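REQUEST ID: PR-0412
SUBMITTED BY: lab tech R.K.
PRIORITY: routine
TASK: structure prediction, single protein chain
INPUT:
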Amino acid sequence: MRDPRAILITGASGGIGGALARLCKLGGISGDHWPQRRAPLDRASPLDLVIANAGITGGIDGDSEGETLADVQRILKINFGGVCSTVHPVVPAMRRRGRGQLALMSSLAALRGLPYSLAYCASKAALKAYGEALRAWLRPQSIEVSVVLPGFVDTKLAGHVAGPKPLQMTAERAARIIRRRLARNDAHIAFPLLLHWCLRIAAILPPALVDSILTSVKVDIRRYEWASRSE
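STATUS: complete
OUTPUT:
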């Protein structure tokens, strides 16, 4: 959609969501509060574009024995469940109007499971598959759906990851890429291109080879910083 007038961005308190809100000259609300405010907001100003962006990081630090079941459930609830809670309330109205656009914030981590960020990769892979299915289902109603797959972006959330961050970019640059490609209605908005292709190739190489490469890289996720933050 080239010129959306009414835009909702969840997780716009910082990171990519905040940069998108500034680029679009908007404020933002937390995804935690969106389900209770959905009907009045859409009636007052029918939404043209919804960017479901709120999420948290998670993974394994150097002193950890792994993710707990509670860790896994929390990440999936926020990263996948939170996006569903944002998207589901707006879909019926968009279908009635026969227009609208949805953007689901996944990650390049959705393309190949990483041994230091198990549940995070799973949550982003679920979003990728969900967004692809949603796009096909809503296509007859002329509703556009894009899955956004960023690589490393310099945000507070990325600051919790201690390790290599190849081709990291600023949140402002990421926001410009997303906005430009949403206007083109790209099904997948994956960037940076080189890292995207590296992970796509990794997904089809022999698993033992890729596993050995990934486990040779030291990465720590600071668990005490798992507070809810926007992407």
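NOTES: The mean pLDDT is 85.
REVIEWED BY: pending
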